[in-house]
């Protein structure tokens, strides 16, 4: 019953977002024949707004259904305690685990909740960018190491990396009412998890794996999130589902 309610809510958000927003979503490389199959991990890069669920308007129903029925999402405990938005955040995936920003029992619960069918959806930076390009403490946005634990834990399947161009033109943190009729831009990429993990392990070893993964994701983010691809980097249209 919970899964059906989540799926209905996400479908409703999709319909609303497509009424009020335009989408510019494309792949940075030629995608696989069926890019939505075998997804075990979704890494959302460039977290800028609480209104990022609007992006579901650009994804096919099969992806949204997988979030509702198989999704596992770590969400900041601070967000889940909000009076109204807290309920929403507790209903964005089948399993929502409230986590602190520390490597403690809450993060261990995320890892313990994973199973062979789970699709983990994570915002690897772990906090939200403010209008000045920094986090709320004035620090640069960096990828946290928790995603390395997840990549280590998933034996096979694909990781979908989403490169958001940001939503400050829709809603900045603290702004009560979002702006409608804007374009939401995102780039997509899939990588085979086992191949990706083994490449980093072979090159940097177990001790250097986490730092290498963080550096790689930050490099990808800085390349694809900040603006259109250059003329020598073709993009591949993603049909809105």
Q: What do you see in this structure?
A:
With 241 residues, the protein is α/β, with parallel strands linked by helices. The chain has one domain: Glycerol-3-phosphate (1)-acyltransferase (3-Layer(aba) Sandwich). The chain has 7 helices and 8 strands. It has an 8-stranded mixed sheet, sandwiched between helices. Helix 6 packs antiparallel against helix 7. The radius of gyration is 17 Å and the shape is globular. It starts with a helix and ends with a strand. The model has no long low-confidence stretch (mean pLDDT 91).
Output the keywords:
single chain, 241 residues, alpha/beta, Glycerol-3-phosphate (1)-acyltransferase, eight-stranded mixed β-sheet
Please give the structural blueprint:
Elements: H1 2-20, E1 22-27, E2 39-45, H2 61-70, E3 71-76, H3 77-80, H4 85-89, E4 95-99, H5 105-113, E5 119-122, H6 146-153, E6 158-164, E7 183-192, H7 193-224, E8 236-237
Parallel strand pairs: 1-7, 2-5, 2-6, 3-4, 3-5
Antiparallel strand pairs: 1-8, 6-7
């Amino acid at each position: 019953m919970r899964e059906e309610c989540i799926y209905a809510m996400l479908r409703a958000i999709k319909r609303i977002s497509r009424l009020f927003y335009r989408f510019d979503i494309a792949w940075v490389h030629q995608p696989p024949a069926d890019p939505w199959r075998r997804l075990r991990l979704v890494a959302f890069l460039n977290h800028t707004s609480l209104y990022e669920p609007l992006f579901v308007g650009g994804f096919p129903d099969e992806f949204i259904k997988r979030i509702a029925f198989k999704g596992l999402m770590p969400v900041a405990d601070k967000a889940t305690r909000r009076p109204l938005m807290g309920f929403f955040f507790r209903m964005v995936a089948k399993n929502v685990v409230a986590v602190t920003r520390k490597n403690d029992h809450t993060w261990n619960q995320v890892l313990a909740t994973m199973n062979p069918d789970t699709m983990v959806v994570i915002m690897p930076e772990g906090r939200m960018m403010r209008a000045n390009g920094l986090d709320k403490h004035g620090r640069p946005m960096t990828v946290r190491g928790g995603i390395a634990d997840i990549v280590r834990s998933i034996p096979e399947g694909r990781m979908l990396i989403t490169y958001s161009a940001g939503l400050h033109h829709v809603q900045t943190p603290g702004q009560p009412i979002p702006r409608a009729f804007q374009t939401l831009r995102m780039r997509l990429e899939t990588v085979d998890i086992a191949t990706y993990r083994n490449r980093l392990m072979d090159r940097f070893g177990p001790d250097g794996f986490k730092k290498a993964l963080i550096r790689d994701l930050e490099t990808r983010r800085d390349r694809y999130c900040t603006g259109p691809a250059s003329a020598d980097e073709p993009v591949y249209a993603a049909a809105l589902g």
